[in-house]
Write a structure and sequence with these properties.
Helices cover 27% and strands 24% of the residues. It is globular and about 55 Å long. The protein is an alpha+beta fold. Strand 6, helix 2 and strand 7 form a beta-alpha-beta unit. The protein has one domain. Strands 1-2-3-5-4 form a five-stranded antiparallel beta sheet, sandwiched between helices.
Length: 147
């Protein structure tokens, strides 16, 4: 991880906290709100949204073919599909969220408990971490395929 990305991610890690009051007890009680994932030479991170659902991201350097592309223009396999693309210093971050139909978030359980069907799933930290690692691996594979 480069110095700029290290500094930015460290600032996020130290400052990112989600207001959890009103949430019912659940598997999210013992999970972090933010974590850095290093895999296949890329930096990714898991960040909890205000709804309590987890999101996953990969940071792409300027020389990566996906850098600067809208998430809808990138073919990557991750939970629900890519739903985020934004600049972070010289890096381009692509990400996904776990707030789709069929996903459960703590805020949803708190505000609309009847809406959560029995077959809907809370996508926990371990699941999202693996999805981020998969996204990092795909980014590495794309780089390796360059001439």
């Amino acid at each position: 991880m480069t110095t700029d990305l290290t500094r930015y991610v460290t600032e996020l890690t130290n400052s990112w906290q989600v207001e959890r009051s009103g949430w019912p007890s659940g598997p999210w009680d013992t999970e972090p709100d933010f974590a850095v994932i290093e895999h296949a030479g890329f930096t990714g991170f898991v960040k909890r949204a205000w709804t309590g659902g987890l999101c996953g991201y990969v940071a792409l350097p300027p020389n990566h073919p996906w850098h600067g592309k809208d998430y809808s223009d990138v073919s990557a396999d991750c939970h629900g599909q890519l739903t985020f693309a934004e600049r972070m210093g010289p890096y381009w971050c692509l990400g996904f969220d776990c707030g789709h139909a069929g996903d459960v978030t703590p805020m949803m359980v708190a505000l609309m408990p009847g809406m959560c069907r029995a077959d809907w799933v809370y996508r926990d930290f371990a699941y999202v971490r693996e999805q981020v690692k998969g996204l990092c691996q795909q980014a590495a594979d794309v780089m390796r395929a360059l001439p």
